[in-house]
Amino acid sequence: MKRLVLVIALALLLLPAMVVAHADSVVPVAGETIAISGIATQTSGSGCCTHGGPFTGTFTLGAAPSGMDWPVTALSIDSTGFGCSFGQTQCAALVWTISLQFDAGNDTLFGTASVSFIGGGGDHRFLTITLIDGNTTTDPWTNLDTDVPDHSNDRAGTLSYNVAPVPEPSTLLLLSSGAFGILGVIRRRFRA
Predict the structure, then answer these.
(1) How far is CA 8 from the centre of its chain?
(2) Given this model, what pLDDT does residue 120 score?
(3) Long-range CB contacts (within 8 A, 24+) of 36-39
(4) For 103-135, b where at least 16 C-beta lie within 10 A, e where not — what string?
(5) DSSP per-residue letters across 41-81
(6) 115 membership: H or E segment, kind and range
C-alpha cells in the first residue's frame, strides 16, 4: 500500500513537468538569446543571378514587458540568403538597426531590421527585413544596391523563419525520465 501511495504521489508531482515538456513555445527571459533560422526567396531583381537561400542568426530580448510583446535589443543574421554571397567576410556578424518585437504568445517577430553591408561584387547594399505577420512566407525583404544609380541590381523577396525554443522543456522531460528510472530501481529492490 505504501508503494502504491508513493507511485501515485510521484506521478502527480511529475505530471506538470511532463505537460510542460511537450510545449513547443519559447519561454522568454530578459536578456535571453534566441536562435532564428529560415529561408529567403528572391522574387525580383536584375535577373543576373540566382539568390536566396537559408539564413541563421540570433536575437536578444530586452527587459520584460507588461504584456506579451518583448523588445528585441540585438539581432545578428548571416545574410547569405539575402544576396550576400561569394564568401564575403562582411556578410557575417552584422550590426543591425532594429525596431523589432518578439510576440511571446505565438513565437513570432514583428517590425523592421536593416543594415548596410558589402555585397558579393564589392558593392554596397542596404538590406531591410520587414516582419509583418510572423512566421509566414509573406514577410518581405529588400536588398538595395546603393552603388548602382538606377538600382538595376536591387533584389527583393519573401522569407519564412522559425525561432528555437529554449531547452527547458527537454530538460524537464529528461528529469521526468530519470525520476521514473529511479522509481523502477526502487521497485525492483522492494521486490527482491
Answers:
(1) 38
(2) 60
(3) 36/77, 36/109, 36/161, 36/162, 36/163, 36/164, 37/161, 37/162, 37/164, 38/81, 38/159, 38/160, 38/161, 38/162, 39/81, 39/159, 39/160, 39/161
(4) bbeebbbbbebbbebebbeeeebebbbebeeeb
(5) EEEES-SSS--EEEEEEEEEE-S--SSSEEEEEEEEE-GGG
(6) strand 108-118
Say if strands 33-44 and 52-61 run parallel, antiparallel, or are unpaired. Answer: antiparallel
| DSSP structure class, residue 23 | -
In the chain, which residue ranges form alpha helices assigned H by DSSP?
2-21, 168-191
10 to 3, 22, 176: CA distances (angstroms): 10, 19, 10
Spell 50-88 as b/e; 16+ CB within 10 A means b: ebbeebebebbbeeeeeeeebbbeebbbbbbbbbbbeeb
Helix (H) or strand (E) holding 123: none
3-class DSSP assignment, residue 164: coil
Tell me what pLDDT residue 116 has: 79
Average pLDDT over residues 53-63: 89
| pTM of the predicted model as reported, rounded to 2 decimal places | 0.67
